Structure formats: C-alpha cells, structure tokens
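note to self: dont lose this again. the chain is below, predicted strucutre after it. 95 aa total, dont forget to put it in the shared folder this time
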Amino acid sequence: MKKYIEENQEILKQLDLFVPIVNKVHGKNHPEFNEVKRNYEVIDNKLKNNDFNLTVEFNNLKKITNNYKIPNGVCESYEAVYNMLEKLDNSFNKR
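---
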C-alpha cells in the first residue's frame, strides 16, 4: 500500500489544498460538499496512519457525489476535486 501513497502523492497534496477552499466557497450552496470534505479527511488521516481500509469512505463518496458527477455551475476547482477523488478511488480499487 505504500506504493498507492507514492503513486497518488501529488493528488493527495492537491486535495489537501483544494478540498478546504472548495468547501469554504461552495459548502453553503452545495451542502453535499461538506460530506465530501469529511470523508476525504478520514481517508487522509487513515493514509497518514497506514490504515488502508478505505472501502467505506470511497463508497460514501460515490453515493454523495453520484459517482463523481460534477454539479452544474461549479468552478474548475470543484470539478478538479471530484476528478481527483475519482482517480484516487479507481487507483485504490485496482490494487
């Protein structure tokens, strides 16, 4: 699983930056993003503690985001977060 972190290190760094900002900007009009943020934080904490039991969190994200479908009228950063989360999810499921 170390390989998973290494392969996705850049995405994880970007998500650490983007998720709080997108939540601050869009959380009020897109309350589902608050749940996205919470689930991402759990994933991030687990990875930092070498806990790779992430199935529940990725399943939650798929439900919350309707399989990472980007809502109408959101900014490029919001779209980028969904795309990065989907890449993380796909990478996780390929291992």
